[in-house]
Specification:
The chain has about 90 residues and is an alpha+beta fold. It has 2 helices and 5 strands. α1 packs across α2.
């Protein structure tokens, strides 16, 4: 298994950041079947082969993902896509 950790800085209010992260989670659900659920300021993410969370704090979104064996070879591409989508939603 491989893990991905990304810290993405933002200058949004917590409400705006939460809305942006929710938009991203909705896209992930539609495109990839990722299920998500909020627990306070933590959005948990899960689908076959991926498990993780997005933690919202003032000024930073921390993403932690654990990839299953089948997705481990794609770690760098997944990490690049996470950064790209965070930039699109929070940039």
């Amino acid at each position: 298994m491989a893990s991905i950790q990304v810290s993405y800085p933002h200058q949004h209010s917590m409400t705006q950041a939460r809305e942006a992260v929710q938009t991203l989670a909705t896209k992930l659900g539609t495109k990839l079947g990722v299920k998500s659920a909020w627990q306070a300021d933590v959005l948990t993410l899960e689908r076959q082969g991926i498990k993780g969370s997005m933690v919202l704090t003032e000024g930073v979104v921390d993403v932690e993902l654990t990839l299953g064996m089948m997705l481990t070879p794609m770690k760098s591409q997944i990490e690049a896509e996470v950064n790209k989508q965070l930039a699109r939603c929070l940039g």
